[in-house]
Amino acid sequence: MKNDEILIPHSMHKELLVLERWTDQFPWLVAGFTTRHGGNSRDPFHSLNCGLHVGDHSEDVVSNRRRLLQLTGYAEQEWVSANQTHSDHLYHVQPTDGGKGLHTLDSALQDIDGIFTDSPDLFLASFYADCVPLFFLDPVKRIIGMAHAGWKGTLAQIGPKMIKEWQSKFQSDPDHILAVIGPSIGGCCYEVDESVIEAFLQVTDINEFVIPTNHRKYMLDLKKCNVEFLKKAGLKGVNIEVSSWCTSCHVDLFYSHRKEQGRTGRMTAFMGKREEG
Ligand SMILES: [Zn+2]
User: Which of 6, 19, 46, 269 could join 133 via S-S bond, C-beta 3.0 to 4.6 A?
Assistant: First the structure.
């Protein structure tokens, strides 16, 4: 962890990394990312697996999710999560969605990779093991949101789409929107085929975030790519912060789909807000 890391291990709870720079400034907000520690799941999901879709025992997953709710002070009926499909589909979460996705895949929002809300008393949850979590906050309009950006979601510009949606729906000023690019597989570990790079070449200049290795393989830095896309979408560079955590380099702390050959759990990126008292 670098000194200026944005996601800080919680001082008491090994389960959590917290977005302290945001939550210190905005006491009505919770925001962070779970580690793999402090849960009930067994190998290869040990121990705080929050993904219901990976083959783990669902009762263990639900108890791990309850642990997260308990630590953050949210209730079961406030939880909202989606079945993520590497799409660029966004969803405006409403108070009536409270409770969706907590216990079963069937009750989750379907085919959604970006969730956001202007409503209080909702706990937005999304799941990761190498893909890039994008956190968004408009502290002026009090809007929160997250997007699941693997290479497909990144390429489909799910981040910029979130910003456009907030501009049209809430009259958000992009100058006010803050973004954090969370723990994910880094440019150090994410090797991809030429076909992936060719897809990126169709939409952007790749020099900033792709390094050729050999045998037509490439190291792809999805965090940097998302920074570029968010700047192009109108966010100020100073308002975009990037986590230095690489999930593949730190399987002691995180699940890594790539490093663990697909047999692993999922971390949760979470955000919620209360009405200020
Ligand atoms: Zn790495």
Answer: 269
pLDDT, tens digit, 9 for 90 and up, residues 109-165: 999 999 999 999 999 999 999 999 999 999 999 999 999 999 999 999 999 999 999
Residue 252 domain boundaries? 8-187+239-273
Q: What is the pLDDT of residues 32-68, one digit of tens each?
A: 999 999 999 999 999 999 999 999 999 999 999 999 9
Q: How far is the CA of 190 from the centre of ligand 1 (A)?
A: 7
Dihedral sign of CA atoms 137, 76, 69, 125 in order: negative
Q: Answer yes or no: is 251 within a domain.
A: yes
- Expressed in angstroms and rounded, the spacing between residue 150 Cα and the centre of ligand 1 is 15
Measure 133 CA to ligand 1 centroid, in angstroms.
16
Helix (H, G, I), strand (E, B), or coil: what is residue 226? helix
CA distance 273 to 119: 8
Instruction: For strands 79-83 and 109-110, give the pairing.
Output: parallel
For residue 222, being part of any structural domain is answered with no
Q: Report CA(141)–ligand 1 centroid distance (Å).
A: 36
127 vs 52: CA distance, rounded Å: 10
Q: How far is the CA of 46 from the centre of ligand 1 (A)?
A: 21
Q: How many residues does the chain have?
A: 277
**217 is a domain residue:** no
pLDDT at 277 over 70: no
Q: How far is the CA of 223 from the centre of ligand 1 (A)?
A: 12
Task: Please report whether residue 193 resides in a domain.
Answer: no
How many separate domains does the chain show?
1
Alpha carbons 53 and 51: distance in angstroms, whole number: 5
State the CATH number of the domain containing residue 134. 3.60.140.10
